[in-house]
Amino acid sequence: MSDVYDRLVDLLVDRFEVDRAAVGPDVVFEDLDVDSLFLVELLLVAQSEFAGAELAEDLVSPSDTIGRAAELIERQLTTAASP
């Protein structure tokens, strides 16, 4: 997986105390029993972790997978880096 995915997993585990064994690229956030407020907080933390990315509060939904979230964040980082 990508560096963004690895860092996102580290945030989930270290900052939000999600069990690492429960995390995988195909795991849906709903399966982790998280709600949209959790995702807003996750995106705010990720925004400071991934300097330069502007992450909208609704970028990721509870029905998205962790892998999809990493792809969306990576896309935002690429867009922010483009002139």
Automatic annotation (TrEMBL):
It comes from the Bacteria. InterPro entries: ACP-like_sf (IPR036736), PP-bd_ACP (IPR009081). Coiled coil: none annotated. This is Acyl carrier protein. The lineage of its organism: Bacteria, Bacillati, Actinomycetota, Actinomycetes, Streptosporangiales. Residues 2-77 form the Carrier domain. Pfam families: PP-binding. It comes from Actinomadura latina.
